Amino acid sequence: xxxxxxxxxxxxxxxxxxxxxxxxxxxxxxxxxxxxxxxxxxxxxxxxxxxxxxxxxxxxxxxxxxxxxxxxxxxxxxxxxxxxxxxxxxxxxxxxxxxxxxxxxxxx
Length: 108
Description:
Layout: E1 9-13, E2 16-20, H1 23-28, E3 36-43, E4 46-52, H2 58-82, H3 92-102
Antiparallel strand pairs: 1-2, 3-4
């Protein structure tokens, strides 16, 4: 698999100079938004750039999970109310199928 390359452009950042990455880089690799890191000069025309992604705090992660669950439940509730004619009762046979499917799965 060939890696994707991204063009750099010079940028003035305050009193410093830097490089600007295209938005496609951050779309493809959102973990590097707001990342810190370092640069090592390997040769006259070669740099090694090491980015260290910012770790999301567990609390932020939990808030995002709660929000996503809330949005999902709102969506399926609205869909069920709008399309009540397509709903079907959850049967014992369905429950047994689900139990078989989840047999041996550990939930943390």
